[in-house]
Amino acid sequence: MTASLRAQWVSCASNDSPAELLEQCKRLCQVIVCNSRSALTAISSTKPDIIVFEFDNPVAEQLHLLQSVKRLHPSVPILMITSTHSEDLAVWAFRARVWNYLVKPVPLRELKSNLEQLAKISKRRETVGRQIERPGAMMPLASNEQAPGHTEKAVMQRIIENLRRDHTTRLSVSQLARECGMSRFSFSRLFRSSFGCSCREYVMRLRIDTACKLLEAPHPSVTHVAIAAGFTDASYFARLFRRHISKSPIEYAQVASAKLSPRGTVARQDSTAWRSKIA
Fold this sequence. Notes:
This protein is α/β, with parallel strands linked by helices and 279 residues long. It has 13 helices and five strands. A five-stranded parallel sheet has the order 2-1-3-4-5, with helices on both faces. The longest helix has 21 residues, at 108-128.
């Protein structure tokens, strides 16, 4: 699927930087390599389907070059690969409208998945003519095109509010990413850098917390609690609950029911300690 994809590889990395990623890309698609000094000329000449910027430690001049390329070739997706990562750099990349932001080392499977998605976008663009491409996997728009308050921080805060409200229902990470205007890879990376865990882990913590509250009610049914908390399998829920609370759901419910005994304090302490993880 990716064999016909034409990629312009702009190397902003040092000469002694490992070339493994570039060689992997060459095995998957057609690659033309240039350095940062000749990037503008090379891209205008080759008219690639995608542009890959490889960085070690991006400096202002190199980032300005990426912005210039995006301004001159707005319909061509840009894949940004960097050795240095920070939340500020990731946010900058999203605002610059790079198609995806990857941090080395990049697994071959992840690189291949990105190229396959880009090949699909390239085919669609060929059928409708070259136009500004804004597929579901695109990053957020540049800051001057965003509505007031539509920053990455505001987006992630809205996602957290939605997760807290809907965590007992079926949730799709891919759908959440599309709602943010990001690829799944970028959404997952930004979520982890913002909250210290994956989106799935966060949802699981919310569900366990909900289960704790439900188990504190009189005479709870473990099966009903599991379903109400968002789990589809009561046995899986019981195993997961024990792993994180160090008690089975039944044991937790028994301790919670003994409110007048010293053991009641233990149940409340268990629940409070768990809830502090998702505060």
